[in-house]
Design brief:
This is STAS/SEC14 domain-containing protein. It comes from Winogradskyella damuponensis. It is a single chain. The protein is of the alpha/beta class. The chain has one domain: Transcription Regulator spoIIAA. Helices cover 36% and strands 29% of the residues. The protein contains four helices and eight strands. A hairpin with a 3-residue loop joins strand 2 and strand 3. The mean pLDDT is 95.
Length: 123
């Protein structure tokens, strides 16, 4: 069963193996927003592995310095970025350098879902 919540700066959708975030236009994801996302994910998934899927349909920025903290999230199996935007892909390639977990970039949600399911089944 899918659960959807709005936490002000983004919308979260929860599935069995993954959580999809859609960050609002113009947001700058920094320590405060990252901690909120981690806390919600840890509460929802408890000790169950999950994949964080960032559905980048809006233009926003991420401070790459949040990724070392994100890497410490024990049950986070990996992170996927889904976008068609060239600039968002380039930004994600830079962000990938800061996360010490599997991190992939996809053009479609279906590709990200398949990767997430495979990652979870192999963990």
């Amino acid at each position: 069963m899918q659960k959807i919540i709005d936490i002000g700066f983004c919308t979260l959708k929860f599935y069995k193996n993954y959580m999809i975030t859609t960050i609002n236009e113009g947001v700058h994801v920094d320590k405060e927003q990252n901690e909120a996302l981690i806390k919600i994910a840890e509460n929802y998934y408890s000790n169950q592995p999950f994949v964080y899927i960032s559905h980048r349909v809006n233009s926003y920025s991420v401070n790459p310095n949040v990724y070392p903290r994100t890497s410490k999230t024990k049950n986070l199996a990996g992170l996927a970025v889904v976008t068609h935007d060239y600039k968002a892909k380039r930004n994600a390639q830079i962000e990938k350098l800061f996360l010490h977990k599997p991190f992939e970039i996809f053009a479609t949600l279906t590709e990200a879902f398949n990767w997430a399911d495979e990652l979870i089944s192999n963990s």
